Structure formats: C-alpha cells, structure tokens
Amino acid sequence: MPKKVDHEARRERIAEALWRIASTRGLDGAGLRDVAAEAGISLGQLQHYFRSKDDMLAFALRHINALADRRIRDRIGALGGEPAPRDVLRTCLTGMLPLDAHSRTGVLVGAAYFVRAVHDADLRSEARNGIPRLRDFFTGQLRRAADRGELPPARATDDEAMLLISLADGLSTYLLLEVHTPAQALRLLDLHLEQLFGGRRENGGTG
C-alpha cells in the first residue's frame, strides 16, 4: 500500500529548509534547487508544492508568522489571570523583535518577502493582510488601558497602535543591522511604553 504523504507537513519542511538557508547565507542565492537540496527532496517534488520562489516565500512567511503568533499567545497566557494591557502590548512587541536565532530568521524571511512585494501588487496585497488585524488588536488594548485609567483616552487610537507597530519594525531593522543590541532595543521599547503610559507598570516590571 503506498505511503500516505502529509502534504502540509512537507510544505512546512520546505519552509523550514528555506529558513535554515536564510539564517546561514541569506536569501538572495536561495533558489528552488538550493531549498530542495536542503529539504532533502527533488526539485520536481518542491515544484509540486511551489511554482516559484515567490510562492515559497509567501508560504514560509505565513507559516513563520503563525508560529510567532502562537509563541506570543503562549507568552501572554503565561502572564496569568487577565494581564494588564501594557503587559500584553509589551509581550507582543518583544515577540515581534529578532531577539534570538529563530525570531531573527523569521524577520529575515519577512524582509526578503517585503522587498519583492514592493514591486509586485499580488505579493504586496498578501504582505498587507495581517497589518489591520494587528492594528485593531493593539487599538483594543490601548482602549482597555484608557478605560482602566492607565492611559489618556486621547492616546487610545489607531494611529497610536500603528506607531507601536512601526516602532517594532524600526527596532527590528536596527537589530538586524547590529545598530542596537537586544538589550538596547528593549530599553528603547520600554522607554516608549513609559512615555505612553506615564511610567505606570503592571504585573512585574520590564524583564
């Protein structure tokens, strides 16, 4: 009886091969043949799942974002009880930063995808999909904070949420370029949150 192939698992295996290449030598030279060899499959098998490098990058980006989302949710859950909005926001923002090898690879995959998306309308649409959802989640946390008296109501806006997202994106760039160390990036993130929330902190500090 033929062995049943788990197609989703094979796609994830290909995505993980792409990440390994990204973490060691970047993505510029990572063609389909390179990724197939890294994944231990034939080029024909890879092309059964992904017609082009862009298709492969899009899947890898969605998969790594899903893993990051799960990791952030687990960290929020570990805060216990009903965590304060500031703690939820800090957990999300730190989870977006390339502070370790795994998250660094994820940000590198995202950066490679976004460079291509600038010149391709279909890829650009895919890249934008998650931003409104993240903005709305951050806005909801800011409004919770305002309702709790922890934040001026005037700061509980979509614009403020987008500034937080932009801060994480900017710090991620400087971390990749080694302009900042992880400790420096976290210090700047905490400085902004202190300015936003007026220095008030819930549930245990900045660690």
H/E topology pattern? HHHHHHHHHH
Largest sheet: none
CATH superfamily: Tetracycline Repressor, domain 2
Residue stretches low in confidence (pLDDT < 50, at least 5 long) are 200-207
Number of helical stretches of at least 4 residues: 10
- Give the CATH class: Mainly Alpha
Q: Any idea of the CATH topology?
A: Tetracycline Repressor, domain 2
Which band does the percent of strand residues land in? Answer: under 5%
Mean pLDDT: 87
Integer-rounded radius of gyration: 19 Å
- Output the structural class: mainly alpha
Helix content: over 70%
Count up the domains: 1
Query: How far apart are the termini?
Result: 54 Å
What's the count of strands?
0
Can you describe this structure?
27% of the residues are buried. The chain is mainly α and 207 residues long. α2 crosses α3 and α4 crosses α6. Mean pLDDT is 87; it is low at 200-207. It is 72% helix and 0% strand. The protein has 10 helices and no strands. It has helices at residues 7-25, 32-39, 43-49, 53-78, 85-96, 101-117, 121-128, 130-147, 158-176, 182-197.
What keyword list fits this structure?
disordered C terminus, single chain, Tetracycline Repressor, domain 2, mainly alpha
Please provide a brief summary of the model.
The protein has 207 residues and is mainly α.
Indicate the topology:
Layout: H1 7-25, H2 32-39, H3 43-49, H4 53-78, H5 85-96, H6 101-117, H7 121-128, H8 130-147, H9 158-176, H10 182-197
Helix pairs in contact: 1-2, 1-4, 1-6, 2-3, 4-5, 4-6, 5-8, 5-10, 6-7, 8-9
